[in-house]
Design goal:
The chain has 370 residues and is an alpha/beta fold. It has 2 domains: 128 residues, ATPase, nucleotide binding domain (Nucleotidyltransferase, domain 5), CATH 3.30.420.40; 201 residues, 2-Layer Sandwich (Nucleotidyltransferase, domain 5). Helices cover 39% and strands 19% of the residues. The protein contains 13 helices and 12 strands. It has a 6-stranded mixed β-sheet. A 6-stranded mixed β-sheet has the order 9-8-7-10-12-11, with helices on both faces. Helix 7 packs across helix 12, helix 8 packs across helix 12 and helix 9 packs across helix 12. The chain is globular and about 50 Å long. About 3% of the residues have low confidence.
Amino acid sequence: MAPRRPGGQGAFPIPVEPPLAAKPDPAQLYAALDLGTNSCRMLVARPQGSQFQVVDSFSKSVQLGVGLEASGRLGRASMARTVQAMQICRRKLEQLSVKRMRLVATEACRRARNAGEFLQLIRRETGLSLEIIEPEEEARLAVVSCAPLVSTRTEQLLVVDIGGGSTELVWIDLSAVPRADRPRAIMRLHAGFHPPESPFPAAKVVDWISVPLGVATLNDQFHDVEDDAARFALMSWFFEEKLADFSPYNASQPREGFQIIGTSGTVTTVAASHLGLKRYDRTKVDGLRMSSDQIDRVIREYLALGPTGRRNDPRIGRDRHTLIMSGAAILQALMRIWPTDRLSVADRGLREGLLYAQMSADGVLEEGPC
């Protein structure tokens, strides 16, 4: 399946997650839900100056895309798991009386022939209405959420969002933007990858691509390869082949002034393994910078562990061990093409971008420094 390609100001939402002493004012609350190929995740937040404060969150592996690669349809068990997760989300939204929300579905529902029936089922069982968003909007919102992690020294930026069913890559040229304004220039992309003329220095989107391979779909492609190391190598090279039409693919990029930001469970798990965290700590992972050598060392450790070792490794977790190698294969392919000493780990993504877009449209976030 060929990758899909396009025809073609604001504040920085940094989540703050201390427990709240009193029930928040419903009039201030916003919700964002991301139903992906592997997980259902939701955030409820309220604006707080130039940032937002997380009031409640939910994340559950629903494995919606199981069997999709072979049948082209969402399976009954997968849909049932997802409906159960959505019922929990509905109860949270009702308890907090949230009125402003955006609930979206991504690659699995984009591809499934029975996606319309499934969304009707969710509406009937939970009262919640989901919309299927296009790859460009998914990529754009992921980019916006990562803006606070952009270094002022970065001239060429690659943002990578490794999902369950697809992987989005966006290459951005910041060389014409004054250093101090580079993170904010990324944030202005919420208006689109090719926004209208603006008095502010603009980040230039050189190219973007949505590859219909994520941790779940890539794993499904090679599930019949028994040898662990061989399966990993095949997945990595297969993914790289899908990048042939991405315009910066063959560009010679110096390490100086180049930054990759990775946002996904794969990237945060690799970072947690690098730090030796047996219990995940977002404050230590989000914003961490890793070199190609450090990433490669963790991936080699995963391979040495084998399937049984990975299943029992507390750094990986029981809910991620079956898909960590397909995600690592994608990450290794990217590091092979664009080696860097400045990969920034982002524990943020589509949900944060959805929240920012809603709050920005309502004008409830203040201008603030990066």
